[in-house]
Amino acid sequence: MTGTLVLVRHGQSEWNLKNLFTGWRDPALTEKGVEEAKAGGVALKDYGLTDFDIAFTSDLSRAQHTLKLILEQTGQTGLETIRDQALNERDYGDLSGLNKDDAREKWGEEQVHIWRRSYDVPPPGGESLKDTGARVWPYYMMEILPRVLAGQKVLVAAHGNSLRALVMVLDRLSREEILKLNLATGVPMVYRLKADSTVASKEVLGDMSAAH
After folding, report:
1. Binding residues for substrate, per the UniProt record (predicted)?
2. Which positions ≥6 away from 6 have C-beta within 8 Å?
């Protein structure tokens, strides 16, 4: 039997709360985000996952803070952790830091919707979901997947779009299906993989209806 892969989107950030495009900018978690991360850790503890072999996170503090809070709950504060910008949120380019309503006024609702929800149309100076996947997928294949297939329990704390790119592959979702998927903040997704790297089982330890 192979190992276990757990994916968690970071808790609510200050810019999530303010309805701003965040991307590679680095706002902190809100109080709610801290509580979401702690709740994710409690969910993993209640599920019996308190013995991870390694953790991965992005180069951004909101994901790193989320991981720290989760590991405090599971009693693994000293766990080996690898940080890499390959797991960063999608780069929103010229939209970064803008209020989403202001962006709609500037470029029009339809254009902003295309940038946010198309698969392969990037915002000016930024990345599409396809572009994000182009850096996430190779990193997963080279650094994360081999550990899971070797029987390790691996925890990944990252972002809505970097994780959507992973979920697209793991759950074998089409371009259309992945565009409809939102990941709730702080909610762990527990995957067990087969030896051929496909998914044997998936469990969501929380309320995915809280996605936004």
Report:
1. 9-16, 22-23, 62, 89-92, 100, 116-117, 160-161
2. 44, 49, 52, 153, 154, 155, 156, 188, 189, 190, 191
What residue numbers does the annotated binding site for substrate cover? 9-16, 22-23, 62, 89-92, 100, 116-117, 160-161
The domain of 140 spans 7-39+49-210
Q: Do the domain assignments include residue 44?
A: no
Does 119 fall in a domain? yes
Instruction: Count how many domains the chain has.
Output: 1
In the annotated binding site, the residues are 9-16, 22-23, 62, 89-92, 100, 116-117, 160-161
The CA distance from 59 to 90, in Å, is 12
Q: pLDDT by residue (tens digit) across 85-107?
A: 999 999 999 999 999 999 999 99
Task: Give pTM, 2 decimals.
Answer: 0.94
